[in-house]
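Bug: token stream looks shifted between consecutive jobs. Job 1:
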Amino acid sequence: MTVPPPATEAAPPAPQRCGLIAIVGRPNVGKSTLLNALVGQKVSITSDKAQTTRHRITGVRTVDEAQFVFVDTPGFQTKHNAALNRNLNRTVHGVLADVDLVLFVVEAGRFGLDDAKVLALLPEDKPVVLVANKLDAVHRRAELAPWLKGMAERRNFAEFVPLSAKKEADVTRLFKILKPYLPEQGWFYEEDALTDRSEKFLASEIIREKLFRLTGDELPYTSTVVIDKWEDEGELRRISASIIVERDAHKGMIIGQGGERLKRIGSESRQELEHLMDGRVFLELWVKVRSGWADSEEHLRSYGYE
């Protein structure tokens, strides 16, 4: 008679982890691109124009037992003192007070005065991970070692992670590095959640992205988008939105000759919205001049700035 081997007890499931992670850095280091890669879907707009991220954007990604809640922030503004910029910097400070972990994003191999100003503002009581983004743009990797040594002398970083936000393998590696820093606690969101932002907010961000991409450096960054009307008719969404600018000349830049540029902004926005919302979209765009809105606390509140 054979004796069966003793039953092995199943290992207890790993405890859930969940934490808030801020993504900070000067403008244009790739913070929004990194957030979108981490979430696996666009939740924050990307543009070559500095200062396109204006609000806290929460992106969520659940990997195995760990839920990562990412908070994108505006790049710290150090050059101008308009109400909009003061508002953006208050947003960054508010985010940093709440999080469990900070990702300090810089361009691999580069560290300038604006990077240093952001680093000086990071809290001393939070673990900070140095993310050296745009690694694919570094032609001589041997030069990174002395650069990383110099960065280590600037702050006691919890981790150093050179990567390219555009490479899936690098993003997967980043999740594994960040996981131990998340507190052991229940998840904040459902397992399949991607963002806490509404469809209306994402629509305004997508329109704003197309606006900046199609106007290039012509249009000052003090332009915003407000959703005026949103109606659901079965699978069809009827959206009316206003692009707010400060001067009549800016209005002309957006409309373009014969209205061609505004039509293109509307067409590209509609196509992306239909893909995002998996349904038909009727989009109507207007351009309105509101002189001095970016330096008016009242206007900022009415346009949804925190």
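Job 2, same session, no restart:
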Amino acid sequence: MDVLHTLYHEFVGFFNVDGVVKLFRTGNYQSLLTWDGITAAIGPFIPFLLVIEIIRAAVYKRFKIEDYRVPFLIFVFNRFIGRFISLAMVALCIGFFSKYAIFTATNTWYWFIYGYIVWEFGHFLYHYWGHKVRLFWCLHSQHHTPETMNLSVTYAHFFLEGAYADVIRTTVCILLGVNPFMLGVIMFIDGTWGAFIHVGENVIKDARFGFIGRLILTPSHHRVHHARNPLYMDTNFCNLLNIWDRVFKTYEPERRDITIEYGISRKVNMKNFFDVYFGEFYYLFKDVVKAPGLKNKLLYIVMPPGWSHTGEHKTATIVKREYREQEAASQQTATIQPAYEQEKAIC
């Protein structure tokens, strides 16, 4: 019975239906007019959308168990060892940094917009460093290893990544005046949207969302972010508002002439949980061990993935620059060739 009780609570926890169950048990539907009631009602949206996504994939004979196996194992693993760490770090940062805030915003709509822009800045910093600092990439790479896009990918994270991310995002927000209540509202909205943008082609084929995609980051933008195509590497770091990607020149829309290839640049054994979850730590350890001198060992930890002490760098910046140069050269050749053929025909 204890096992069944535990499984029941794990099921309820995954689908976030505890609030809905409580609502039906008490019959207090007036609570839907409160913030707690709203969050309880919206909480199950992403998990149930994941179920719909799986059902549609099965109906159209596109379901592959390997697309969901590793994200599911990561979710289970993280539930046991990292469940409360992130919340604890948020509370710690709020308690420590509140006294250093430059001011405290009030709960008005214009300060809410300000707060969301500040939150996105904090999210951009965490996410950018997660791609540009090798150690932080080891905490983030698990989220990028899946070679298809579906809602289960939103659960594929290293158990410490949430804590590292929330330390940065919460600290930035509190120091810049976002009050704790507003921060909680923003985190809920951002978490829900951040999960939704992983929706796969089995539910939404073309996820550009028309003119809305000019204002916010859509699932299409996030599919680009998860791509290993040279042009798409290290782009679209924001979550909802694309303001900071545009400011820092990391914004990249999805092109119709480029098919997205999901995953990371190295070959990953997607059937091996340890390769997916700990693989980047293993390769970082190997690079640090073989690096000559303390300086090079430290540089492997803080420099971007692909950096090498030999100078033969394969960072995303270099790979993308080489791709753009090749693309520009190809376009120039394509422009010159017809003109040459036309001139040859006249002669």
